[in-house]
UniProtKB/TrEMBL annotation:
Gene designation per UniProt: AOX1
Keyword line: Electron transport, Iron, Membrane, Metal-binding, Mitochondrion, Mitochondrion inner membrane, Oxidoreductase, Respiratory chain, Transit peptide, Transmembrane, Transmembrane helix, Transport
Record keyword Transmembrane helix present: yes
A molecular-function term among this protein's GO annotations: ubiquinol:oxygen oxidoreductase activity
Family membership: Belongs to the alternative oxidase family.
Catalytic activity annotation: 2 a ubiquinol + O2 = 2 a ubiquinone + 2 H2O
Top EC class, one word: oxidoreductase
Mode of membrane association: Multi-pass membrane protein
This protein's name: Ubiquinol oxidase
PANTHER family named in the record: ALTERNATIVE OXIDASE
GO biological process: alternative respiration
Region (Disordered): 55-75
Superkingdom, natural source: Eukaryota
Subunit structure, as described in the record: Homodimer; disulfide-linked.
Length: 331
């Protein structure tokens, strides 16, 4: 429900952005011709302002007025980026009335993790394809264990850079399929993109407690290049196999986070306070710790496991994803 409200707002703002261009070309031309002189100051507002300040140390207020003159916006002291297009950021508040500080997600994107989900559920591989998926994932665990050993904070951060890829690739391919075939997706495009965004939020959270070294960044760069293309091809050839692989990857993620919790509980990893971004995203209490965050993330992974095994099962039954309504907002 919350996600759909978010998408409705997004759709509304997209419409506002797009409509003047497509529905009032003449009006847009008029504006451009009238404000042609002002346009450079607006379009390059930030750069120009800094250059001018550097050269002359001029009147900042006058500068701001010139910059916003073509956009019809109001100059405010705290406004850093001026816009011709009138896309002022929406003012959002928390439930207690304090200002919402995150721009990467909004209150309607937040939720309480469902910690009651069964973490032990497992899809037993029976068919050849399932066994291939299972052993593909198992074989990837060996180099992962070797590289990270028991550095679970670092391991989580690095693996989330990979985990956020399949949802985006699958969602993109279903999106293109929907366009090509003039058909609905059953909500699966949105469901897979939600998964990708959720995984990316895991990464944004773990970034707060772990700092990647240069060679780890290089590794992410390389792995992303290989994994994105491999998953893209794999999904085109067999979405049944691709979703099964992700289902097993999520089972491994649950295992990794369980090990992470053990390390926190036996004191090998310091149970630091939860990062503020995690407190707001999972609606945790203000005195939450890293342990609470890992519990929430592990619950998310269990939900991703279910979604991907379900998607694979739909294909196994000779059906298409669009025939089974997607589990939207399933966290
Ligand atoms: Fe994740
Ligand atoms: Fe996941």
């Amino acid at each position: 429900m919350m996600m759909s409200r978010g998408y409705t707002r997004l759709a509304s703002s997209m419409f506002t952005m797009v409509s003047p261009r497509f529905f009032s070309t003449a009006a847009t031309r008029g504006v451009l011709s009238n404000d042609m002189v002002k346009a450079p100051a607006v379009g390059l507002g930030v750069r120009c302002r800094s250059s001018m300040a550097a050269i002359g140390g001029g009147d900042k207020e006058q500068e701001k007025k010139q910059a916003v003159g073509g956009g019809g916006g109001s100059a405010k002291d705290d406004k850093e980026i001026v816009s011709y297009w009138g896309l002022d950021p929406t003012k959002v508040s928390k439930e207690d009335g304090s200002p919402w500080k995150w721009t990467c997600f909004r209150p309607w994107d937040t939720y309480r993790a469902d910690l009651s989900i069964d973490l032990k559920k497992h899809h037993a591989p029976v068919t050849v394809l399932d066994k291939m998926a299972y052993w593909t994932v198992k074989s990837l665990r060996w180099p992962t264990d070797l590289f990270f050993q028991r550095r679970y904070g670092c391991r989580a951060m690095m693996l989330e850079t990979v985990a956020a890829v399949p949802g985006m690739v699958g969602g993109m391919l279903l999106h293109c399929k929907s366009l090509r075939r003039f058909e609905h997706s059953g909500g699966w495009i949105k469901a897979l993109l939600e998964e990708a965004e959720n995984e990316r939020m895991h990464l944004m959270t773990f970034m707060e407690v772990s700092d990647p070294r240069w060679y780890e960044r290089a590794l992410v760069f390389s792995v992303q290049g290989v994994f994105f293309n491999a998953y893209f091809l794999g999904y085109i050839i067999s979405p049944k196999f691709a979703h099964r692989v992700v289902g097993y990857l999520e089972e491994e993620a649950i295992h990794s986070y369980t090990e992470f919790l053990k390390e926190l509980d036996n004191g090998n990893i310091e149970n630091v306070p939860a990062p503020p971004i995690a407190i707001d995203y999972w609606r945790l209490s203000p005195n939450s710790t890293l342990r609470d965050v890992v519990l929430a993330v592990r619950a998310d992974e269990a939900h991703h496991r279910d979604v991907n095994h379900f998607a694979s099962d739909i294909h196994y039954q000779g059906r298409q994803l669009k025939e089974a309504p997607a589990p939207l907002g399933y966290h």
